[in-house]
Design a protein that fits this description.
The protein has 11 helices and 12 strands. The chain is of the alpha/beta class and about 300 residues long. The protein has 2 domains: about 1-235, Ribonuclease Z/Hydroxyacylglutathione hydrolase-like (Metallo-beta-lactamase, Chain A); about 235-298. A hairpin with a 2-residue loop joins strand 8 (about 150-155) and strand 9 (about 160-165).
């Protein structure tokens, strides 16, 4: 029953995100193109950072933001290559990363994601009614190639390794490692715009995010560039800075639990105090982060 409630909640979140996207005014959004390497770029607009690999083999995208921005995103891509988009890989299911799926899928682009991403997106379309058949338009927005562990692409002179992180930001997160260029797109597991965001409705995990950061350090070196789901390209030092912060906050919450303190008492002690000015102005506020950590450690 608990799993079914979580599934229904996740479906409602997917539908809510789609509704918000329809209501939002995208008319003033501009797509900015940033070069990372000879054949690698990332695009900023409204939503998650889009990774772009270009070359003679075609265009490989990581995420696609919102549906109303698809034409502007494609125009930005045409500014760096005349090759067609062949693949888009969704790092997770959130609408600011998958909103353009239907447009691209209808145009013949192959959508790839972790199996859990397809499951959540499909269930969101049916409101949890697994017996309802999808329309052709709805099917066009779903991943058609899925994996449970990892998948590799050999395109544009790159070895592209996409792999499941485990429950972290959501239950379907993937990192995408451009191994030759030494660039890793992290999706929303790592971001530079605020405290880590655990989507509890999608079985996310604070401890999983910690493990994700540790994995990033294991598979990288001092020259690696990390493209976050939101924010700016970062280094190993940036990953370590956030990880040290997370460790400190985790340990303070754990000490409070070991001392028999309630969540409210721990929150009132402000275990995040010295970090709030830098990290507390994003989507996740300090008390919310403390509550997530507390509930996982209990």
């Amino acid at each position: 029953m608990k799993g079914m409630k979580g599934l229904i909640a996740c479906c409602l979140v997917v539908l809510s995100a789609a509704s918000l996207a329809q209501e939002r005014d995208f008319s003033q959004v501009e797509i900015a193109t940033h070069r990372l390497a000879d054949n690698l770029y990332y695009l900023q607009g409204a939503g998650g950072n889009i990774g772009v690999s270009v070359g003679e083999d075609g265009v490989f995208l990581i995420d696609d933001q919102f549906a109303p921005l698809t034409e502007r995103i494609l125009a930005a891509i045409r500014g760096v290559t005349d090759q067609p988009v062949r693949f888009v890989l969704n790092t997770h299911h959130h609408g600011d990363h998958t909103g353009g799926n239907q447009n691209l899928g209808s145009a013949g682009v192959v959508i790839v994601a972790h199996e859990n991403v397809r499951t959540i997106l499909r269930n969101g379309l049916t409101s949890g009614d697994l017996d309802r058949l999808l329309t052709a338009d709805e099917r066009a927005g779903l991943p058609v190639v899925t994996y449970t562990d990892s998948v590799r692409f050999h395109l544009n002179g790159e070895n592209i390794h996409a792999f499941h992180v485990g429950p972290a930001h959501t239950i379907g997160d993937s990192f995408v490692h451009f191994q030759n260029a030494n660039i890793i797109h992290t999706g929303d597991v790592f971001r530079t715009t605020g405290y880590p965001y655990v989507d509890g409705n999608a079985s996310g995990s604070f401890l999983g995010i910690v493990a994700g950061y540790e994995k990033l350090l294991q598979i990288s070196n001092p020259e690696t560039v990390f493209v976050p789901g939101h924010g700016v390209p970062s280094s190993q030092d940036d990953i370590r800075e956030q990880l040290d912060m997370i460790y400190t906050i985790r340990d303070r919450v754990k000490a409070g639990i070991d001392g028999g303190l309630s969540l409210e008492r721990i929150q009132s002690g402000k275990p995040t105090a010295e970090y709030d000015a830098r990290w507390g102005n994003g989507r996740i506020k300090a008390p919310d982060l403390v509550a997530v950590i507390y509930n996982e450690l209990m």
